[in-house]
Specification:
CATH superfamily of the largest domain: Periplasmic binding protein-like II
Protein name: ABC transporter substrate-binding protein
CATH class of the largest domain: Alpha Beta
Radius of gyration: 21 Å
Family: Belongs to the bacterial solute-binding protein 1 family.
Pfam families: SBP_bac_1
Keywords: Transport
CATH topology of the largest domain: D-Maltodextrin-Binding Protein, domain 2
Largest sheet: 6 strands, mixed
CATH architecture of the largest domain: 3-Layer(aba) Sandwich
Distance between the termini: 20 Å
Number of helices: 21
Number of strands: 12
Structural class: alpha/beta
Region (Disordered): 1-24, 47-66
Shape: globular
Strand content: 5-15%
Helix content: 40-55%
C-alpha cells in the first residue's frame, strides 16, 4: 500500500490506458459501494438512532474448510507491524495453525518502514518465514529484491475460490501471485461518541459543510469535535486522501497516486484548503494543534470513548480497525460508539480501502502452509470474531463478525467486488508515502501545525514525490 499499485503494465501507454479503463469501470460501481456502506452503517446506528442490542455471539464454529499438512517440530516466524490488541487477536489465528499442523509459530514485531526492517533481517540471514506487509509497494520491493516466494498451488487455489480478481491482482507482481490479502480496511469512516453527540444535539453529518457545522456546535458545547492522531503521519494521509477523492474525483486520484500530475496541481491546493477548514480551528481539535501533533493513533481512539458525556473529543476518523482500540475502553460498539461514512466533500462520498498482504519469504513447506491458511475462511473467521477486523475473503460468513456495525462494513466490502480505491500513500514508494519523519507523513504533519501554508506544503510534497518517484 505505500508503494506502486501491484501489477505493472508493460509500458507507460498501456498502464495509462488500463488506468483509464479501470477508472471508468470502478466509477460505475463507486456510488453503489457508497450507498451500500452508508445503508449498512445507518442500519447500525449511523444516523444517530443506534440499535441497542448487545453484540452477536456469532455462529457455532464450523469445521475446517482447508486441509493443512502436518509439520511436527517445524518452527516458523511471522512479522507484521501490528501491536497491542491487533497482534493479540492475530495470535489466536496462529494458535489454531499450530494446533492443526504441529508447528510452532513465533510473532516477530516489525517497524515501519517494513522494507527496511526486512532488509536488515535478510542481510543478517534471519528473514521471517512469512511477513504481512502494510503497503502494496512493500510487496513489489520484496519481489524486486528477490526476497519473496511465489504462492504455491494450495494458497493459489484458496485465493481463486475465496477472493475477487481485484484482491488477487493486488497480491500479484507482473502476473505472478505472491501475496494473500489477509486483512482489508474501509478507511472512510468516522466513529463518534453517542453521548457527546446527544448532549450537543448533533446528528451525523453527510457533507463536509455539515461536518464543519457539527464540529462548531460540538466545540461550542465544551467537547472538542475531533481527535486527530497527528503524531502518526499515516492518519493524516488518510484524511487528505478522503477529501481529495471526494473533491477531485477518482480519475485524478489515480493520476496523483502515480505522480502523473504534480502535487502543485490546483486539485491538491483545493483539498488542502478544505482540510485546513478543520485543522485550522484549534478549538475543533482535542488538545489543540499541539495536542493533535502529540497524539498517537491508539490514544486518538481511546480518548474519544472515555469520559462519559465529556470525552476529550466527540469524533475520531479512521478505518474499521478502530474497533480494536474501542474494545480497550468501556464503550460498546453499536451503542456508545457509533459510526458514519466519511462526509461527501464533492458530489460523492469517498471510499478508500487498505489492507495487509501476507507473503512467504522462505521456500519452506511451513511458509506455504501458513500462506494457505491465511487465504482460507478458517483463519479469517477466527480474527473476525474478535472485532476490529475485516476480511476481503468472500467465503467468511458475515455472522462471524461480533456486531452489526462490523457485519455492515464487511458486507459493503464484499459487495463492492473490485470497485474500490486503494490508499494513495500506500501506492507510493515507501520513501514518500510510508516513512516516519519524511515525505508525505512529515509534510502533512507540518501542514497540521500550520494549515495556512498550503503553497509551502504543496511545494514540499512535490519535491519529495519527484525524488521518490524518480521524475
Amino acid at each position: 500500500m505505500r508503494g506502486r499499485y501491484g501489477r505493472q503494465g508493460s509500458s507507460q501507454t498501456r498502464a495509462r490506458t488500463g488506468a483509464r479503463t479501470r477508472a471508468r469501470t470502478r466509477t460505475r460501481a463507486w456510488a453503489a459501494l457508497i450507498a451500500a456502506g452508508a445503508l449498512a452503517l445507518t442500519a447500525c446506528g449511523g444516523d444517530g438512532d443506534a440499535t441497542r442490542g448487545g453484540p452477536s455471539t456469532g455462529p457455532e464454529q464450523k469445521g475446517p474448510t482447508v486441509q493443512l499438512p502436518k509439520l511436527p517440530g517445524e518452527k516458523l516466524e511471522v512479522s507484521a507491524v501490528w501491536t497491542g490488541p491487533e497482534q493479540a487477536n492475530f495470535a489466536k489465528v496462529l494458535k489454531e495453525f499450530e494446533k492443526r499442523t504441529g508447528a510452532t509459530v513465533a510473532f516477530v514485531p516489525a517497524q515501519d518502514p517494513i522494507v527496511t526492517f526486512l532488509g536488515t533481517k535478510i542481510a543478517g540471514g534471519q528473514p521471517p518465514d512469512v511477513a504481512l506487509l502494510p503497503q502494496v509497494g512493500a510487496l513489489v520491493a520484496a519481489v524486486r529484491n528477490k526476497w519473496a516466494q511465489p504462492a504455491g498451488p494450495e494458497a493459489t487455489a484458496q485465493l481463486e475460490a475465496n477472493y475477487s480478481p481485484g484482491w488477487r491482482q493486488l497480491g500479484a507482481v507482473e502476473g505472478t501471485q505472491y501475496g494473500v490479502y489477509y486483512k482489508a480496511a474501509n478507511k472512510s469512516l468516522v466513529w463518534y461518541n453517542a453521548k457527546a453527540f446527544e448532549a450537543a444535539g448533533v446528528k451525523p453529518p453527510k457533507t463536509w459543510k455539515e461536518l464543519i457545522a457539527a464540529a462548531d456546535t460540538l466545540s461550542a458545547s465544551g467537547t472538542p469535535a475531533v481527535s486527530v492522531a497527528g503524531a502518526d503521519g499515516w492518519t493524516l494521509t488518510d484524511w487528505f486522501e478522503n477529501v481529495y477523492l471526494s473533491q477531485a474525483g477518482p480519475e485524478k486520484y489515480d493520476r496523483l497516486a502515480k505522480h502523473e500530475i504534480k502535487w502543485t496541481d490546483d486539485s491538491v491546493k483545493e483539498a488542502l484548503t478544505t482540510l485546513g477548514e478543520l485543522f485550522g480551528r484549534k478549538d475543533f481539535l482535542a488538545g489543540g494543534t499541539s495536542g493533535a501533533l502529540a497524539t498517537e493513533f491508539p490514544k486518538s481512539v481511546t480518548q474519544t470513548f472515555t469520559g462519559g458525556e465529556r470525552p476529550a473529543a466527540a469524533m475520531v476518523f479512521e478505518g474499521d480497525f478502530v474497533g480494536v482500540n474501542i474494545a480497550q475502553t468501556e464503550a460498546k460498539v453499536g451503542e456508545d460508539a457509533l459510526v458514519f461514512p466519511f462526509p461527501a466533500v464533492g458530489a460523492k462520498a469517498p471510499v478508500v480501502s487498505g489492507g495487509d498482504v501476507a507473503v512467504a519469504l522462505k521456500p519452506s513447506k511451513g511458509a506455504q502452509a501458513l500462506l494457505t491458511f491465511l487465504a482460507s475462511a478458517d483463519a479469517a473467521r477466527i480474527q473476525a470474531g474478535q472485532g476490529g477486523f475485516v476480511s476481503p475473503n468472500k467465503a467468511v460468513d458475515l455472522a462471524a463478525y461480533p456486531n452489526d456495525i462490523q457485519r455492515g462494513i464487511a458486507k459493503a466490502l464484499i459487495a463492492a467486488g473490485d470497485d474500490f480505491r486503494f490508499d494513495m500513500s500506500d501506492q507510493a514508494p515507501a520513501a514518500f508515502g510510508a516513512t516516519p519523519g519524511t515525505g508525505e507523513w512529515k509534510a502533512l504533519q507540518d501542514f497540521l501545525a500550520n494549515p495556512s501554508d498550503v503553497a509551502g506544503t504543496q511545494a514540499r510534497l512535490e519535491a519529495d514525490a519527484a525524488k521518490a518517484f524518480g521524475n
